[in-house]
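ugh ok fine here u go
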Amino acid sequence: MRPHHKLEAWSKAVDLVTDVYKKTDTFPKEERYGLTSQIRRAAVSIPANIAEGAGRHSRKEFAHFLSNSQGSASELETELITAHRLGYLDEASFSGLVSEVDSNYEEKRTSRLFTSTATARHGLCLRERILFSKIYLWERASFIPIRQ
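structure:
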């Protein structure tokens, strides 16, 4: 089993991709190469970045790819707002997708920011808590200003 298969954030992101594809199926045909394509690419990029980061060998690289994944989530949310304003998504579909994006984003953010004790409340397995705790500690160490 690849390392990303064990990550709950990756699994939820793959579920989000499936939902996005289903909801964008109803978009106008003239948007096939426009907004539909952009939304789908941003959605696919979220779990793809998580998987790529999990497959790397250093915590720094993993943190970098988690950050890219969060950027894709922000891009996706913006595109969903645009689709909703254009009338391509009804209120229920829009709210559901944005809620999924937000929960996925919040899970990755929480995983990166809290120690293993705090992340226990968010349903992460022991391996994820340990890994994310190390990422958190590494990030904290790299941002501590050096006194001269």
